[in-house]
């Protein structure tokens, strides 16, 4: 499956004196709420998160008849989320996937930039030490690929379920381990034939770290070395 998480986002942290932390932000375009910090009472707790996230992913796709293609892509997206309840948040992201390629037997097919969209929800099962968060994300991306004079439309859809287990340190740092499973079709035209493919790997295993700054800013980074490999970062404002 395609992913629109790609590239390492270098981010600038907003600094000021850290005091009691309120909430937590988004670890990546398809990440989870990555902290265990307790909410204020319902009438005073922060409800919105707005930020930007970017990353890089690398995986392999299987299109049947023995056809496999390695894929790498980058993406940069804007992320927004709303807290329906202290333990439940809805989120959406929109941006662009760019600077990627499909490495097929007949050559390297370069991706044009294309839209990357996602909607999802996050639910906090446990708070405190440790914390446990569950997530579900539905995403879609489309772009054209090019190899010489050959051009084809590539589109992919993905449903991803995840869990993150972590702990809060010093009221501002939240390291966590993550597991995700996913699946969905990818549509492409290769050598004159329409193809339907899917990811060779249907899982991710990795870790992340969220840093909550001055009650209003979340900075996070996430690395996934197993399954569909990815590296991503995000910065968000909570209000």
Give the topology, please:
Blueprint: E1 48-62, E2 68-85, E3 88-104, E4 107-111, E5 114-126, E6 131-147, E7 150-166, E8 173-183, E9 186-190, E10 193-199, E11 203-213, E12 217-227, E13 229-238
Q: What does it look like?
A:
By secondary structure, the chain is mainly beta. It is built from no helices and 13 strands. Helix content is 0%, strand content 66%. It starts with 47 loop residues before the first strand and ends with a strand. Strands 1, 2, 3, 4, 5, 6, 7, 8, 9, 10, 11, 12 and 13 form a 13-stranded antiparallel β-sheet that branches. It is elongated and about 55 Å long.
Largest sheet: 13 strands, antiparallel
Low-confidence runs of at least 5 consecutive residues:
1-29, 31-43
What class, by secondary structure content? mainly beta
Beta strands, count: 13
Supply the number of helical segments.
0
Oligomerization status of the protein chains = single chain
Residue-averaged pLDDT: 82
Share of helix, binned: under 10%
H-E order:
EEEEEEEEEEEEE
Q: Describe the global form.
A: elongated
Strand content of the residues, in percent? over 45%
CA-based gyration radius: 18 Å
Give the end-to-end Cα distance, rounded to a whole number of Å: 34 Å
Characteristics:
elongated; 239 residues; 66% strand; 13-stranded antiparallel sheet; mainly beta
How would you sum up this structure in a few lines?
The chain is an all-beta fold and 239 residues long. The protein has no helices and 13 strands.
């Amino acid at each position: 499956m395609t992913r629109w998480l790609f590239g390492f986002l270098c981010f600038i942290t907003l600094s000021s004196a850290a005091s009691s932390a309120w909430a937590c932000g988004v670890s990546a375009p398809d990440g989870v709420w990555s902290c265990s910090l307790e909410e204020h009472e319902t009438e005073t707790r922060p409800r919105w998160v707005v930020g930007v996230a970017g990353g890089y992913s690398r995986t392999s796709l299987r299109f049947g008849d023995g056809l496999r293609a390695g894929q790498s892509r980058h993406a940069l997206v804007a992320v927004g989320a709303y807290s329906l309840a202290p333990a439940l948040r809805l989120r959406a992201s929109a941006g662009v996937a760019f600077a990627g390629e499909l490495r097929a037997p007949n050559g390297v097919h370069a991706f044009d930039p294309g839209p990357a969209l996602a909607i999802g929800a996050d639910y906090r099962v446990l708070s405190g030490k440790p914390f446990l968060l569950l997530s579900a994300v539905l995403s879609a991306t489309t772009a054209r690929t090019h190899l010489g004079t050959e051009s084809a439309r590539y589109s992919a859809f993905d449903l991803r379920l995840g869990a993150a287990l972590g702990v809060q340190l010093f009221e501002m740092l939240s390291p966590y381990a993550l597991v995700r499973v996913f699946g969905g079709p990818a549509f492409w035209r290769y050598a004159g034939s329409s193809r339907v493919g899917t990811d060779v790997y249907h899982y991710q295993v990795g870790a992340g770290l969220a840093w909550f700054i001055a009650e209003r800013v979340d900075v996070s980074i996430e690395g996934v070395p197993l399954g569909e490999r990815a590296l991503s970062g995000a910065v968000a404002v909570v209000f």
